[in-house]
Amino acid sequence: MVIGRVPKPYRPCLRQRRSNYTRASSTPINCNATVPPLPAGAGDDPLAQVAAPSSGGARDRAQDGVAPGSAQSGRSEDAKKEEQKLDNGGSDKIQGHSPVSESNDIHNLLLLPPNNQKARRGSASSTTSTSSDEELPMRSLVAAMRGNKSRSWGLIKQVVHWSPFVQVYKKKYPWVQLAGHNGAFKPCDNGTILKKLTEKEFVCLNKILDDSYMLQITPKFHGKVEKEGVEYVKLQDLLAEFDNPSVCDIKMGTRTYLEEELIKAREKLTMRKDMYEKMVKVDKNEPTEEEHNFKAVTKPRYMQWRERLSSTATLGFRIDGIKQADRDPDKNFKTVRTNQEVAYVLRKHIDYRDETRLKLLERLKEIRSTLEKSKFFASHEVIGSSLLLVHDQPADGVARANVWMIDFGKTTPLNGDKSLDHRTPWVEGNQEDGYLFGLDNLVELFENLSNIPAPEGLEDDQPAVG
Questions:
Q1: Which phi and psi (to 5°) does residue 432 adopt?
Q2: What is the pLDDT of residues 156-171, one digit of tens each?
Q3: CA atoms within 13 A of residue 409's CA, in its CB half-sphere
Q4: 26 or 231: which carries more pLDDT confidence?
Q5: Rounded distance between C-alpha atoms, residue 416 and residue 160, angstroms
Q6: Which H, E and C letters describe the chain, residue by residue?
Q7: Which of 303, 319, 327, 320 is nearest to 426 (CA)?
Q8: Are 141 and 159 in contact (CB under 8 A)?
Q9: What are the residues whose beta carbons fall under 8 Å from the beta carbon of 256, sequence distance 6 or more?
Q10: Residue 436, class by beta-carbon neighbours within 10 Å (0-12 exposed, 13-18 middle, 19+ buried)?
Q11: Which among 55, 130, 59 has a CA at the least distance from the CA of 85?
């Protein structure tokens, strides 16, 4: 399973709460603006001159665990009056200072979020608008510095988290799942994603932590979390380092079903109408006369036909899905079978860039060498695992590319001291999966990408790479 995400145009901005903020002024921020001098007596309250228009101060105090007007607030009546002035829109002066204005660019930088076009469309005015949940932390910090000091440090950390110097480089993306079961992934924070937990994968991810070789080629594993009653594994977001990523999921091995799945299907042999329908949708001549009469096929029959249909059985890998940076995901590769067809698709995927091809090739060789040394890899039947190829062409013109090994939901440990070489042809009972056989073919394909002709009737959009 793979998750890809399509970047929105990047724009440095302050991180803001999900609300309908708009900037008070469309005037560009001037970071060199002169800060007004502190008023007389402001030394006791160094943040007193910083104010932001707001309308929810009393409610915020209630949310912080202090009821409006409560004696527990620890604030003097004068301080409460000053906060009331803030609640009324900052129209009154504070300690002899004028309130924040459109020309006070430094205060705008600290206190006001960036221009939000969606919010502006939903507002009747272009002036600053606030709602009951639109409090900025700087205002709460001012109140805390004056009164309840027990909460001050937490609020200071919140303000630092909101700082433009921290948030300016954070990017937000809508998420698109490229392959696998829909709904298996959820976006998370701090460069991570959540994937629905399966017991086999959870066990494998914990074992990988003890294999120094596998750690070099797999996403970082951050443990198990629960969200809304569902358990997930928390994994590194492999797309975080890219500006405008293009992604390709390549399913590795000469089969994508476990031997135990085949045995169970034979023990309980049933005719499957759903699999028959999938089969005739691709090739109406594939079912036998008997299967056409029943309008159903058995699961073992369907599974083995599916592997022969694509390049899985012949090359040891198949293209499962592709997401180009500027296009919708494409999963229509079920019948991409020959070396020529695979090479044609991959040339288009890397936009005929030789620099990208060479970087992907280098990483594929590195992964092969690493797997050949891994004890975890040698002692497991690796089924349904993918290589995730990611690349982009950022604004500076320097191509970035990387490859990772992902998906361990069907990876099964071998009994006793048994080991696999992952290249021996599969015969039922030997548990060989053909993973390295497929990787050998994929490396060779990238080495000769320009020398492999396009399939009959197709032409490359550009001269071949490499």
A1: -65, 140
A2: 444 434 333 333 333 4
A3: 17
A4: 231
A5: 54
A6: CEEEECCCCCCCCCCCCCCCCCCCCCCCCCCCCCCCCCCCCHHHCCCCCCCCCCCCHHHHHHHCCCCCCCHHHCCCHHHHHHHHHHHCCCCCCECCECCCCCCCHHHHHHHCCCCCHHHHHCCCCCCCCCCCCCCCHHHHHHHHHHCCHHHHHHHHHHHHHHCHHHHCCCCCCCEEEEECCCCCEEECCCCEEEEECCHHHHHHHHHHCCCHHHHCCCCCEEEEEEECCEEEEEEECCCCCCCCCEEEEEEECCCCCCHHHHHHHHHCCCEEHHHHHHHHHHCCCCCCHHHHHHCCEEHHHHHHHHHHHCCHHHHCEEEEEEECCCCCCECCCCCCCCHHHHHHHHHHHCCCCHHHHHHHHHHHHHHHHHHCCCHHHHCEECCCCEEEEEEECCCCCCCEEEEEEECCCCCEECCCCCCCCCCCCCCCCCCCCCHHHHHHHHHHHHHCCCCCCCCCCCCCCCCCCC
A7: 303
A8: yes
A9: 303, 306, 307, 312, 383, 384, 410
A10: buried
A11: 55
Query: What is the structure's pLDDT at 185?
Result: 86
Summarised one tens digit per residue, pLDDT across range 232-268 is 999 999 998 898 899 999 999 999 989 888 888 888 8
Question: Could you identify the residue written with the tokens 């759903």?
Answer: 274
Question: CA–CA separation, 375 vs 211, rounded Å?
Answer: 7
Radius of gyration of the chain (CA): 30
* pLDDT top residue among 401 and 456: 401
Asked whether 342 and 445 are in contact (CB, 8 A), the reply is yes
pLDDT value of position 460: 81
For the chain, the straight-line distance linking the first and the last C-alpha, in angstroms and rounded, comes to: 30
The chain-wide mean pLDDT, for the chain, equals: 73
What phi and psi values does residue 321 have, to the nearest 5 degrees?
-175, 155
> 93: which residues sit within 8 A by CB, 6+ positions away?
99
**Maximum mean pLDDT: which of 279-288, 411-420, 435-444:** 435-444
CA nearest neighbour of 96 among 144, 147, 138, 36? 36
Q: What is the pLDDT of residues 358-393, one digit of tens each?
A: 999 999 999 999 999 999 999 999 999 999 999 998
The token duo for 368 is 């092969």
Closest CA to 306 of 269, 346, 262: 262
- Cα three-residue angle 396-398-401, rounded to 5 degrees: 130
Higher pLDDT, 411 or 120: 411
The CA-CA-CA angle for residues 221, 226, 231, to 5°, reads 75
